[in-house]
UniProtKB/TrEMBL annotation, chain A:
It comes from Pseudooceanicola marinus. Residues 4-249 form the ABC transporter domain. Its EC number is 3.6.3.-. The keyword Nucleotide-binding applies. PROSITE patterns: ABC_TRANSPORTER_2. Keywords: ATP-binding, Hydrolase, Nucleotide-binding, Transport. This is Lipopolysaccharide export system ATP-binding protein LptB.
UniProtKB/TrEMBL annotation, chain B:
The keyword Ribosomal protein does not apply. It comes from the Bacteria. One of its GO terms (molecular function) is branched-chain amino acid transmembrane transporter activity. PANTHER family: ABC TRANSPORTER ATP-BINDING PROTEIN, HIGH-AFFINITY BRANCHED-CHAIN AMINO ACID TRANSPORT SYSTEM PERMEASE. It comes from Pseudooceanicola marinus. GO terms for cellular component: plasma membrane. It is a multi-pass membrane protein. This is Leucine/isoleucine/valine transporter permease subunit.
Automatic annotation (TrEMBL), chain C:
It holds the Pfam family Peripla_BP_6. One of its GO terms (biological process) is amino acid transport. InterPro entries: BCAA_transport, Leu-bd, Peripla_BP_I, TAT_signal. Keywords: Amino-acid transport, Receptor, Signal, Transport. CDD domains: PBP1_SBP-like. This is Receptor family ligand binding region. It comes from Pseudooceanicola marinus.
TrEMBL record, chain D:
CDD domains: TM_PBP1_LivH_like. It is a multi-pass membrane protein. Keywords: Amino-acid transport, Cell membrane, Membrane, Transmembrane, Transmembrane helix, Transport. The keyword Protease does not apply. Signal peptide: none annotated. This is High-affinity branched-chain amino acid transport system permease protein LivH. InterPro entries: ABC_transp_permease, BCAA_transport_permease. It is found in: Cell membrane.
Length: 253, 399, 446, 343
């Protein structure tokens, strides 16, 4: 039993079987990567985990509780946070405000009508946000409009926002997509540091093998909606099935 | 002060000062001067400025913060007015129960419409609200006439029950609206030199309400709730994945702004106890949208400025007729006088809509942030001039 | 707060000194005896007409008439109907020696906007009388306001029974005729033209005026033996009436009565003609269309479709009495085209107000009201007329008109078929169509 | 039965007008992403093209007829249109009679020019501005346009008749074996329907079968990508705006004989056409057309006495009820695309 157990999950879109029969178990406090060629169903799987999609068959259990039938915000409140391929932050808000929102969500729950007390006077939240920004090297940018930051900083902010909720499971959807090498390396270092400092489980979907092999403790290879192999990184590297899946893709391209 | 930071408190003070001294500020010209036509300091218009200000402030809580563009907010104002007038008809002419009822009823109505409409976003939401409001208007105009008195508008009559008040006064007229005996329509006139300033009880009642409404809006803007609403506007997806349920936030904003509209409607009926169905028409909903955008959506003071701007044109420019123009330019030679009058005629009197349309276009083209941005630019310009002057004086000795 | 018309006048005569401020004292407990008591050399009247919206042209015509009336009251121009008016107390020196000034406002044909603009005239400009308007909803709303404010309201074009029925007010007066009178005048003519064995189908604009019009004409025609097949309400906002007209084809109705006004009337009539109703034969009878309330201005929009169609109107410029001719002459000379019925009623109302003030010797609304109540006059275009004290409604002859077959100009659209004598259109003050509501007592404000 | 057939005809006829206006509105939404509150004004300008041509052809010289008098008792001035003077009374009269069909030719260049000027002069500066700003500026423009028309033509409706040849109505009933005179329909309304069908078909064919149309459709689907391909999409969008204006204008020209044009007819149609577009689904041309006809037919049925007697006042609100039901049942209207105008 892992912290996340995916059993027999299947999902069809019209005539397309996006996910066949996916079984996956993620152990607590590990970094688990899901890789696979384009169209393998990685994002569909991720969306099934966070409540954006509801699988046609199977079950998804988080810490012994089913996530199926719950909305994204309920699943988040259970302790799953998600980082998107393109950073999803509150572009119209300052960095500080961006940081405070997950702090509120964590303390006050999914909805609280707190319309009188000013944000400024809420020292508890401010301190928490400050601490998180300090931790993530964002403190100097606290008054910046988050939309005007660099891509790397946006990614950093998004991760910081997720961490501020102290999730038990962090899902990363191609966190380095579209990044330059240096930013990618920074992100790898950041994730390593996070892993080091916290008790957290990370599931990462990634194309970039450099990232995958730098971070992952276990890797699941997905092809055409079904898991091909699941193993430690060393064994994945030379695995014939994996080669076939990727080369097949390369040949097709 | 009052739980506000210094900047907001200053803003509140400025608004309070403007509102309290409005009878002076809006009457800058002596009563018998040619410019007196531009005076706006008479009770009805001052009340309208303030009431539509409240309406727009409320609308801005929804639109400015969450970005949800409702095209049906006039329905809440209308429902508020009808509730208030019914209260005057059935209970008493005291405005307190009337206003309380109008806020409650429009809040409930907003809850119903908001709950359904907020299932959709963007323009789909706008059209849903528009559809509900237009339905309300059309039914009020025709089928619901027993409740709304249709085209004429719901008004008081000499045989209303008014169980806590009197049906008719001793002199056989309809009693007037009051606040525990203070008559809303009573006006004191102060004559100073050529000026004549009017102080109307009803206006000051509305002004107090505006200040309360404005103060509450500041608190909402600065609160976690306000921040959440801005976050909804910015990125709903991230909201959901941050464990926040956007639905109750938007619904709360919708209901609050509906209650503001109801308050405005109740006040309107308290100042002038008649509720016309046109208040609910889409054009009325559109008007508050225009007020908010024109003034500056998402800013605190913008909607109030926008409301004042539009109401000023509607009430002042529409009254400038040919005779008035001739009286301004009669000093010019006849031919030129006629030419000038002929040109200006298009923009005033029955042409006031044209002026308003042109101003909408000019403001939005050149001041993307609305009138507030205009003010900010002006401020910056002045500061820069100021700064230049300072540097000039500082640099002189160095030379 | 004197408007600058005052100032202009004073400047022109070069006497700026001592201009007493005609302060608006509405709702105040000031020293004046009544609202906006004129204390200087001028008196201000407020003309509240639609300047935007569908009735803007009618409003513009009303405004022309008001301007003409003010000129005549102040002794300029040819005097118009002041010459022919049976009462000769007006001397052409303003009202009670005070020069007449006026302010204007836009009703937008909305109750709210109309009240706002009337209020501004009372509060800001010190108007002592409000007149004008082109719809009953507005008239009733403004009448209510004038009652509260303590000024006189001289209604413009308002045809609903309610204005002097259930919504009548002590401070409000209507010269225009009403829906009941239209029905009473029209029905006998219809009976003689189309016979008493007719089946009528009504299309009615779905608001208060439409309902009272329908009620009145229905009662009048039924009493002459007509049968009412159906009465159908159409939305005020409707522009295309085709879906209301096609069901008529399936009935055995042989008369269509359009209880519509303004744009509604233009469109419904045009649509009805398009659908060939006028060529239709039912039970061996020619199908006919009737428009109970005609407006010449609006009839233009329907073009040729009005030819031969019966209706009623308050007044028409082709009347040959001395009053009408004098009015048409002075209006036509000034503006180049004949006045509409809206213009006529507004002009007459202004003169009647001025005359009442002069006879009462005071601008006090209560005194003016008393002078108007039960007042009988002649020479203002409608023959002998009575301002009835019970409901402040004028009783006078009503014109039954018909769309002209060969118009000689764009104004020459209607011809007068019959002048229905006043007795035939008079009703008791407690007539059920007018019951409910009371005048109340006159309010002088202050 | 015959009543139902008639109401379907009515619905198709009303639907034609709704569909034509909504089509142009959707073209502008879809291609330019602009909320155009001035679209109703374009419809109104089209109708006034017909009015103007009619007035132009009726420009007259005056001759005095001493035997008759005008309303002031002066000798009557009889007006004769120049056209009749030039071409003789018969041909001249015929030309005036056919002014509305002629106005179609007259209005196309005018409407395209109006569209170009609007787009180049104003709208293009608002592509990247929030929808709220677009609403404000186009609403301002609509007010200005209608006030200008009001100033020159007055507020009253102006009769603009169809040619005499089309004035009658056609007896469907007799043709289909019902009683004569039970199902008749005016010629001009049938022409309007046919005309609308041709225009709608034309626009679809244009977008479907021309390279230009393909680029525009690609631009509607993904503006940025098409821009990246090095295609000058802006120029094409300007042309599309002209096309949308022309469609609205033609709808207006042909509508003039059905209901006399007045200056605020654009505003009357504005809200309705927005409802139609949204019910059809943002960004979908077929959706707009389908919704136009659907709402037209619903509106016609709702005004039947049988239905009104069950639900009083339903004809006042049926369009809005339908809009609410459809939008709640289908989140993006009938055929809307995900993500268009949803934020």
């Amino acid at each position: 039993m892992g912290i996340l157990d995916v059993k027999n999950v299947g999902k069809r879109f019209g005539g397309l079987q996006a996910l066949g029969d996916v079984n996956l178990s993620v152990k607590e406090n590990t970094v688990h990567a899901i890789i696979g060629p384009n169209g393998a169903g990685k994002s569909t799987l991720l969306n099934c985990l966070v409540g954006k999609l509801i699988p046609d068959t199977g079950s998804v259990m988080f810490d012994g509780q089913s996530v199926l039938g719950r909305t994204p915000y309920e699943i988040n409140q259970m302790g799953i946070s998600r980082v998107f391929q393109t950073p999803e932050i509150f572009g119209d808000l300052t960095v500080m405000e961006n940081m405070m929102i997950p702090c509120f969500a964590m303390r006050d729950g999914a909805f609280k009508l707190n319309g009188i007390r000013s944000v400024e006077s809420d020292t508890e939240i401010r301190e928490r946000a400050e601490a998180m920004m300090e931790d993530m090297n964002l403190a100097e940018k606290r008054h910046m409009h988050s939309a005007s930051m660099s891509r790397g900083d946006k990614r950093r902010l998004e991760i910081a926002m997720c961490l501020a909720q102290e999730p038990r499971l962090l899902l990363l959807d191609e966190p380095t997509a579209g990044m330059a090498r240096a930013d990618t390396n920074n992100t790898i270092d950041l994730l390593k540091e996070i892993k080091q400092k916290r008790d957290i489980t990370i599931v990462i979907i990634e194309h970039d093998m450099h990232v995958v092999f730098s971070l992952a403790e276990r890797i699941t290879v997905l092809a055409q909606g079904t898991p091909l192999v699941e193993d430690v990184p060393e064994n994945i590297k030379g695995h014939p099935k994996v080669r076939e899946a990727y080369l097949g893709e390369a040949a097709a391209a | 002060m009052l739980g506000l930071n210094k900047k907001d408190f200053t803003l509140l003070l400025i608004v309070a000062a403007l509102v309290v001294f409005a009878p002076f500020i809006l009457n800058p010209f002596p009563a018998d001067s040619a410019m007196a036509q531009f005076n706006a300091g008479y009770p009805d218009l001052m009340q309208r400025f303030v009431i539509f200000g409240i309406f727009a402030i409320g609308f801005n809580i929804l639109f400015g913060l969450t970005g949800y563009l409702s095209f049906g907010h006039a329905a809440f104002l209308g429902v508020g007015s009808y509730s208030a007038v019914w209260m005057f008809k059935l209970l008493s002419m005291n405005i307190v129960p009337a206003i309380i009822l109008s806020v409650i009823v429009s809040g409930l109505f907003a809850m119903l419409i908001g709950y359904i409409s907020l299932r959709r976003t963007g323009i789909y939401f706008s059209i849903l609200t528009l559809a509900f409001a237009e339905m309300s208007f059309r039914l009020a105009y025709s089928v619901l006439t027993p409740i709304t008195n249709g085209e004429t508008g719901l008004q008081l009559t000499l045989d209303d029950p008014r169980i806590l008040g009197e049906t008719a006064t001793a002199t056989g007229s309809i009693p007037v609206t009051n606040f525990f005996g203070i008559e809303m329509r009573a006006t004191e006139v102060m004559n100073v030199g050529g000026w004549s300033f009017q102080f109307n009880n009803g206006y000051y009642m509305c002004a107090i309400m505006l200040l309360l409404a404005f103060y509450l809006a500041i608190r909402i803007f600065r609160s976690p709730f306000g921040m959440m609403l801005r976050a909804v506007k910015s990125n709903q997806q991230r909201m959901n994945y941050t464990g926040l349920n956007t639905k109750p936030y938007t619904l709360a904003a919708f209901v609050i702004s509906g209650m503001y509209a109801g308050l405005a409607g109740g006040l309107m009926a308290s100042m002038d106890p008649l509720a016309g169905a046109e208040r609910m028409q889409w054009t009325a909903s559109g008007e508050v949208v225009l007020m908010t955008i024109l003034g500056g959506a998402g800013t605190l003071i913008g909607p109030v400025l926008g409301a004042g701007f539009i109401k000023y044109f509607e009430n002042i420019f529409s009254k400038i007729n040919e005779q008035v123009l001739h009286s301004w330019f009669h000093a010019l030679p006849d031919g030129i006088e006629n030419a000038v009058v002929w040109v200006l005629e298009h923009f005033v009197g029955s042409g006031w809509h044209l002026t308003l349309g042109l101003l909408f276009m000019l403001v939005v083209t050149f001041l993307p942030g609305g009138l507030v941005e205009g003010g900010q630019r002006l401020g910056r310009l002045l500061r820069r001039k100021d700064a230049e002057k300072k540097t000039a004086t500082q640099s002189t000795p160095a030379e | 707060m004197t408007n600058f018309l005052t100032r202009r006048g004073l400047l022109k005569t070069g006497a700026v000194t001592g201009a007493g401020l005609a302060l608006p004292t509405i709702f105040t407990s000031g020293a004046s005896a009544f609202t906006n008591e004129p204390t200087g050399g001028t008196v201000t009247l407020g003309f509240n007409v639609p300047q935007s919206g569908p009735y803007a042209d009618e409003g513009a015509d009303e405004l022309r008439a008001f301007q003409l009336a003010v000129e005549h009251l102040n002794g300029e121009g040819d005097g118009g109907m002041m010459q022919t008016f049976s009462s000769q107390v007006l001397e052409g020196n303003g009202i009670l020696g005070k020069k007449v000034e006026y302010v204007t406002g836009d009703t937008q044909t909305k109750s709210d906007a109309a009240r706002a603009s009337a209020k501004s005239m009372i509060e800001k400009d010190g108007a002592v009388m409000i007149s004008g308007g082109s719809s009953s909803g507005v008239a009733v709303a403004v009448q209510g306001l004038c009652q509260e404010a303590g000024v006189i309201f001289m209604a413009g074009l308002t045809h609903s029974n309610d204005t002097t029925g259930k919504d009548k007010k002590a401070n409000g007066f209507r010269h225009f005729f009403n829906a009941y009178m239209s029905g009473a005048a029209l029905a006998p003519v219809l009976a003689s033209q189309y016979g008493t064995d007719r089946k009528a189908y009504h299309l009615t604009a779905d608001y208060t005026w439409g309902w009272t019009q329908e009620e009145s004409i229905k009662a009048a025609t039924e009493s002459l033996g007509w049968e009412t097949v159906n009465t159908v309400r159409t939305p005020l906002a409707a522009t295309d009436f085709s879906s209301y007209i096609t069901p008529i084809l399936q009935t055995d109705a042989d008369v269509l009565i359009l209880n519509h006004y303004g744009g509604n009337m233009v469109n419904s009539l045009t649509n009805a003609v398009q659908f060939g109703l006028r060529e239709k034969m039912v039970n061996g009878k020619q199908f006919e269309i009737v428009v109970p309330l005609y407006s010449r201005l609006m009839a233009r929009g329907a073009g040729e479709n009005v030819k031969g169609i019966f209706g009623s109107t308050n007044w028409h410029w082709s009347l040959q009495d001395a009053g009408s001719q004098a009015f048409v002459k002075s209006f036509g000379t000034k503006y180049g085209f004949p006045p509409s019925q809206a213009a006529h009623t507004c002009y007459v109302q202004t003169l009647l107000y001025a005359d009442a003030v002069a006879r009462a010797g005071s601008f006090n609304p209560c005194a003016v009201a008393e002078a108007l109540e039960g007042y009988e006059f002649d020479g203002l275009g409608n023959g002998k007329t009575l301002y009835r004290a019970d409901d402040h409604q004028c009783f006078k002859d009503v014109l039954v008109v018909k769309g002209k077959d060969n118009p000689t100009s764009e104004f020459d659209l209607l011809e007068v078929v019959e002048v229905t004598p006043v007795d035939q259109v008079t009703y008791a003050p407690d007539h059920p169509m007018f019951s409910g509501g009371a005048l109340g007592s006159c309010n002088a404000g202050a | 039965m015959d009543a139902i057939i008639l109401q379907i005809l009515n619905g198709l006829d009303k639907g034609s007008a709704y569909a034509l206006i909504a089509l142009g509105l959707t073209l502008i939404f879809g291609t330019l992403g602009v909320v155009n509150f001035a679209h109703g004004a374009l419809f109104m300008i089209g109708a006034f093209c017909a009015v103007s041509l009619n007035k132009l052809l009726n420009l007259s010289f005056e001759t005095v007829d001493p035997t008759r008098t005008d309303f002031l008792g002066n000798p009557l001035k009889v007006k004769t249109p120049y056209i009749e003077g030039w071409f003789g009374p018969d041909l001249g009269h015929a030309i005036i009679d056919w002014s509305v069909p002629l106005a179609i030719l007259f209005s196309i260049p005018i409407m395209i020019a109006v569209g170009f000027i609007m787009e180049r002069g104003l709208i293009k500066h608002f592509y990247r501005r929030p929808h709220a700003d677009q609403i404000l500026v186009t609403f301002g423009l609509a007010i200005v346009l209608q006030e200008l028309i009001k100033h020159y033509y007055g507020a009253n409706p102006i009769q603009t008749p169809a040619p005499d040849a089309f004035k009658g109505s056609f007896d469907f009933g007799a043709m289909m074996g019902f009683d004569p005179n039970t199902i008749i329909y005016p010629y001009w309304r049938m022409i309007y329907f046919a005309f609308a069908a041709v225009i709608i078909g034309g626009v679809f064919a244009f977008l479907q079968f021309t390279t230009f149309g393909m680029v525009v459709r690609a631009g509607m689907a993904d503006r940025e990508t098409v821009g990246l391909l090095g295609i000058n999409i802006d120029k094409r969008f300007t042309i599309m705006f002209g096309l949308a204006a022309a469609v609205a204008g033609l709808a207006g020209v042909m509508y003039a004989p059905i209901n006399s044009p007045n200056y605020h007819m654009g505003m009357d149609f504005l809200v309705l056409s927005f409802v139609v577009v949204v019910v059809g689904g943002m960004g979908s041309l077929p959706g707009a057309v389908a919704a136009g006809f659907l709402l037209g037919i619903l509106e016609s049925f709702a005004s039947m006495n049988e239905i009104k007697s069950i639900i009083p006042g339903i004809d006042q609100i049926v369009i809005y009820v339908a809009a609410i039901v459809i939008l709640l049942a289908r989140p993006r209207g009938l055929l809307g695309r995900r993500g268009v105008m949803e934020d």
